[in-house]
Amino acid sequence: MDPFVEGSLEWSSLEESDLGQLAELRMALEYFDDPVQRLGLPELREHFHAPGANPGMDAVVGRDKGGTIVAYGWNRLHGSDVGEPQIWLDGGVHPAWRHQHIGRGIVEWQVARGQEWLDEAHAQDPAVCHVMLSRYVDEKFDGYARMIEGVGFTPRRWYFDMHAQFSDEWGHSQLPPVPPTDGIQLQPFHPELSEAVRRAHNEAFAEVPGVHAVSRAAWEHSMRRHAARPQWSWVATMAGEVVGYAMNCANVQDWDSLGYQEGWTDRLGVRPAWRGHNLGPALLIASMRSFLDAGLGGAGLGVDTINPEGALDLFESVGYESEEMVVLYGRELRADGASG
After folding, report:
1. 10-156+329-334 and 167-296, same CATH topology
2. Would you state the pLDDT for residue 198?
3. Which residue in 41, 219, 241, 287 has a CA-CA distance of 20 to 30 Å to 190?
């Protein structure tokens, strides 16, 4: 697809050699906007080389007359073994270049590229009839939210960032006690359990609207991320069977803005048949103990819900406090000529 977005900048496809400049643009955006999600050069490289990534077709950068990248848009395909595919939209415009409709032009380009990808995928496999375009928007960015709603996106889910900062004198005794789990064992994550945990994760979220199963390739890629901390992660097992999990990581790029080092619970889930045994709070407290043992200053996680009311009770019960909210916007596309 032609990388042209609009006429005020020079547009081209994203190349690997652009990632350094793109990281500098991200730093400027983060300094000015203070977003919940931050991306540094390591994360951009991981996205560039992710399984199924095709940034030469799915990402564009806009340069000013001096050749500096001041805007970008990036469609990232989320593949799944089951269910419809999903494309995550990322992008931004340098503050000095805003209010010129460049941001809207980027989103319109991303929608058009998403439609082009879907039509090509449908031609190869008629079963691929739909794709969901998804975009995270911080609650405080109301202007961007209005813009993306004007391009056909609607709110689908709400995400709360929650944090529990440890005081200097904290130790295990200052954490809430691990509740009884009715004989279900908690144990540190081991790599040989990875595939069982992936299957447990997909089962735990199978009935959640808008959530897609994680493919083996995507899961393995996430486990290899530089942010992954399997040594801080926990699983719940019964007779050797994985029934729950807390997969943790270190979002080092966020530590400066937080003012302390934080462990982050990236994935938390319990298989439906094993709910009601206090596994959620038990896994969270075990994770917090790992963070303390690693010398970190706090714990964080993101809560994801289709109904914000009452969604935070579990996490508040073990010491987390809600600080920021992100809204997931979505727009579903349909392949040209697809039936049903």
Report:
1. yes
2. 98
3. 41
